Amino acid sequence: MINRRQMLLNGAMLGAGAIASFSNLAAAIAQETRLRLYWWGTPDRLKRTQGVSELFSQKYAGVTVNAETAGSDYWTKLTTMMAGGNLPDIFQLEPGTFADYGRRNAALPLDPYLGKTIRTDRLAPGALDLVRVDGKVRGIPIALNACAMLYDTDVFSKAGIKPPSDDTTWDDFAKDCIELTKSIGKDNVWAVGNCSHYNSVFTAWLKQRDKLMFTEEGHLGFTADDATEWYEYWTALAKQGGCTPAEIQSMDKRLVETNPLTTGNAVIALTYSNLLPAYQAVYKGPLEIVAPPIKDAKAPTGLFYRPALIWSIATTSKNPDLAAEFLDFFINGMEAGKVLGIERGVPVNLDVQQAITPDINAIAKKTVNFINAIADRVGPYPPPIPLGAAEFDTRAFMPVAQKLAFGSLTPAEAGKELIAQGKRILKG
User: Fold this and answer.
1) For 384-399, what is each residue's pLDDT tens digit?
2) Which of 223, 220, 215, 232 is nearest to 401 (CA)?
3) What does the angle CA 248 – CA 284 – CA 175 come to, to the nearest 5 degrees?
4) According to the UniProt entry, where is the signal peptide (predicted)?
């Protein structure tokens, strides 16, 4: 497990000179070679990723990186490409879907490249354990982040409500959200979005109760009663006006641009730490970052470090060696690190972390400080996501929450349906 000592940016362990020179691959390239790079994200991510791609092309004459991006249809397109044997050379994954693609053998095992083409000596200790599937490293973590809560400090101040802190419980949070909505007093503005369909928040909720989303064996790690408790919480909060109603929730696709905080329908967001700059770029009020609510002072926090995003190389890539060079350049290159900043999360390379911190803006520094501040509160990383997890999320977890919000299911019925669908999809 990555702890405070390992993650803090300051200290002797962050010595200079760990960024070694790149390989001589360029000399071996006799003709133009193209790499297809596929990801999703904000316009800022597009700009930064293209910037690194251009640097890579400059470093290796004859190499062109073709950027392909998508929005909410990313996963549909990626699945179609995988089925057609036309995956990009490098594609972006997130922890909830990563193991699924690894077990389908869509993502190439990178073990032969580790410590060679892809330098690993300055990666945060334990980072590669976050991308290991059944004993093989199937991707490279781009950065680290954690589940977090963003909130408008001015709104809390005007309402005279104490802002959330490390000891804020879910009960406290509900009470504050109800009062906050009343204080705001505007049509179509609530304290927070209904997060019953956010698997990241549900995962933290479960860990606070010593439960898991998925077990080591690839089955559901919670019961219908656990899911019912989760659904009861958000149903009650919605009925009392503390969170957005079904009509608003249905438009939230768990993307920055569709979150109620961004659309002007909320003043709090439960999200990931690395997304603070993206939210602040479009939100007018001042945002602060804190850990999500806790069950109680004696229970686990539910926090854990996670790979913010992951680059994987397609097993069908015609240029896997060049793709591996790109991954090394992306995570270990100092020039690349300065272009990327912390948009995807705190850099996984410790020297890059140290180098970019003085130059990033105050908002970006908040995310770095947050990752370091929770170091003593994080628990172990959950078991690898099983085969079928992506389908469980899109065909069970999200739809059940929508049915619940629109009143088609009671919390108890939703809990039972989620378990039934999960057993069907995960086959056990």
Assistant:
1) 888 888 899 999 999 9
2) 232
3) 55
4) 1-26
Joined tokens for residue 251: 């438009």
Q: Is the Cβ–Cβ distance between 209 and 230 less than 8 Å? A: no
Which residue ranges make up each domain of the chain?
A: 4-143+306-373, 147-303+388-426
Which amino acid, one-letter code, is at 416?
K
CB count in 10 Å sphere of residue 88: 22
Cβ neighbours of 47 (radius 10 Å): 12
- Of 50, 117, 131, 145, nearest in space to 353 by CA: 145
pLDDT digits (tens, 9 = 90+) for 1-22: 444 334 433 333 333 333 333 4
CATH architecture, domain 4-143+306-373: 3-Layer(aba) Sandwich (3.40)
H or E, element range at 324: helix 320-332
**Distance, CA of 284 to chain centre:** 23
Q: Report which of 105, 38, 26 is spatially closest to residue 69, judged by C-alpha positions.
A: 38
**Which token pair is 229?**
């408790």
The tally of CA atoms less than 13 A away on the side-chain side of residue 235 is 22
Long-range contacts from 163-168, C-beta under 8 angstroms, 24+ separation: 163/288, 163/290, 164/290, 164/293, 165/290, 166/290, 166/291, 166/294, 166/377, 167/294, 167/297, 168/290, 168/293, 168/294
Nearest-angstrom CA–CA distance, 368 and 377: 15
| Residues paired with residue 91 on neighbouring β-strands, in sequence order | 38, 312
For tokens 């959200």, name the residue.
Answer: 177
Q: What is the pLDDT of residues 45-70, one digit of tens each?
A: 999 999 999 999 999 989 999 989 99
Q: Nearest CA to 238 among 265, 211, 262?
A: 265
Strand partners, 35: 65
The CA R_g of the chain, rounded to the nearest whole Å, is: 21
- Its pTM stands at 0.79
Query: Does domain 147-303+388-426 bear CATH number 2.40.128.710?
Result: no
Cβ-contact 96, 199 below 8 angstroms: yes
Q: Residues 267-284, buried b or exposed e (16+ Cβ, 10 A)?
A: bbbbbbbbbbbbbbeebe
Helix ranges (DSSP H) in 135-258: 153-159, 170-184, 199-207, 224-239, 246-249
Dihedral of CA atoms 417, 229, 95, 69 in degrees, nearest 10, equals: 70
